[in-house]
Amino acid sequence: MLIFLVCGLGVASWAPIVPYAKERLGFNDANLGLLLLLMGAGALIMMPITGILIRKNGSKKITLSAIIILSIVLPLLLLMDTPLTMGLTLFTFGAAIGTIDVAMNAQAINIERYYSQHIMSSFHGLFSLGGILGPLFMGGMIKSGLQPVIAIGTISVVLLLIVFSQYKSLLSSAHESKDTEQTKFSWPGRAVIFLGLMCFIVFLAEGSILDWSAVFLKDIKNFDAAIAGAGYAAFSIAMTAMRLLGDKFVDKISPQKIVLFGAAISSAGYLVAVFSPWGWLSLAGFVLVGLGAANIVPVLFSAAGKIKGVPASVALPIVTTIGYTGSLAGPAGIGFIAYSSSLSVAFCVIALLLLVVSISYRQQ
Q1: Can you name a GO cellular component term (predicted)?
Q2: C-beta separation of 274 from 265 below 8 A
C-alpha cells in the first residue's frame, strides 16, 4: 500500500513546482502545454514496455528501479533551465511514473490473489491520498521558507526511505511465474480491449474534473476564481475516502455492480453539476462523480489480472495504456467540444459515456 502512496506523492509533488519551472524557462501557457505532453508520452511509451520488463525481471525489481529513477528526476525538474533538458527530464519523469503504475498494480493483483480477497481499492486509496498530501507537504515546506529545490529533494528522500523499507515485503518474481509465461506474441483479445475502453472513459471523466472543473465553476457557475478549485478538491476528497472504504463495498456487493452503480452515480454527478441552479449543488455533483468513479478503475484493473488465458503482465499494461490515453487525450477532446458548443454540453457527453460504461459492463 505504501508503494501506491509513493506514486501518488511523486505525481502530486510536481504540481506545486510547475509555476517555478515555467518562470525559470520563460515559457507561456502554450509552450508549457506542449512541453507537458512529453511527460504523458513518456508514461504511455513505458507502460507496454513495462509489461515486457516484468515478465523478464518481476514487478518487484521494476518497482524499486522506477522509484529510484523518479526520486532522482524530481529535483532535476527544478534545475533544468533549457527546453531540451527540461523536455528530456519530463519525459523521464513520465516514463518512471508509467513504469511504477504498471509494476505496482501487477504487484497488487498478485497480492490480492495471494490473500484471496478484494483489496485493490485500498491500494488505489493510498495513491489518491498521496495525491492530496503531495501538494500539502510541498506547499507547507515552501511556505515555511525552504527553497523549492530543497523541498522537492526532501520529498525524494522520503520516497526512497519508503521504498527501501518496504522492498522486502513485495512479492518476488516466483509468485508471478504463472503470469510471466508468454511464449509468443498474440493480439489482445476482446476482453482486454473492452476493459481498456472502459478505463479510457473513466479516466477521461476523472481527467476532465482535473482540467476543466475550475473553468466550469468560474465561467458557467460564476464562482470567484480564488475558490474555483473547490470542485476538484471536493472530487479528490470524495474519491480518496470512498477508495479507502471501497473493499468493504466490493465484498458486500459484486465487483460488477460496483462498476454498474458507480458509473451511473458518476454520470448523475456530472448532470447535477451542469443543471444545478445553485453553486453548492454543483460542488455536490463533483462529490458524486468522485464517489461513483472511485472504485471502478481498481475493479477493472483487478479484472484485467483475472482474464483466462491472458497473463496479468500482458493484459494490465494494455488496459493501463488505453486507460491513461483517456486521461491525457480525453480532456483535449472535451475542450474541442466546449469550443464548438459549450462546456456544459461537453460535460453532458461525459455523462452519456459513463452511462455506456454502466450499461455495457459485464464481469470478465
Answers
A1: membrane
A2: no
pLDDT digits (tens, 9 = 90+) for 325-363: 888 777 778 888 988 889 999 999 999 999 999 999 864
Return the pLDDT at 301: 93
| Those residues with Cβ within 8 angstroms of residue 350's Cβ, 6 or more apart along the chain or in another chain | 204, 205, 208, 267, 270, 334
SS3 (DSSP) at 97: helix
- Give the position of cell 514496455: 49
CB-count exposure of residue 287 (10 Å: 0-12, 13-18, 19+): buried
Q: Between the CA of residue 76 and those of 44, 73, 150, 191, 271, what are the distances in Å? A: 21, 5, 11, 40, 42
Q: Residue 335 region, left (φ>0) first, then alpha (ψ -120 to 50), else beta?
A: alpha
Give the torsion through C-alpha atoms of 340, 342, 347, 353, to 10 deg. -30
Show Cβ contacts of residue 86 under 8 Å, excluding neighbours closer than 6 positions.
21, 25, 35, 77, 80
Q: What is the CA radius of gyration of the chain?
A: 20
Grid cell listed for 312: 496479468
Alpha-carbon separation of residue 157 from 68, 73, 123, 143, 145 (angstroms): 10, 12, 22, 19, 19
Structural domains in the chain, CATH included, are 2-176 (1.20.1250.20), 190-360 (1.20.1250.20)
Cell of 154: 526532501
**Cα–Cα distance for residue pair 21/329, rounded to 1 Å:** 23
Which portions of the chain are predicted below pLDDT 50? 177, 179-185, 363-364
Which tens digits make up the pLDDT trace of 104-142? 999 998 888 888 888 899 999 999 998 888 888 888 888
Angle (nearest 5°) at CA 233 between 147 and 258? 130
Beta strands in the chain (DSSP E): none
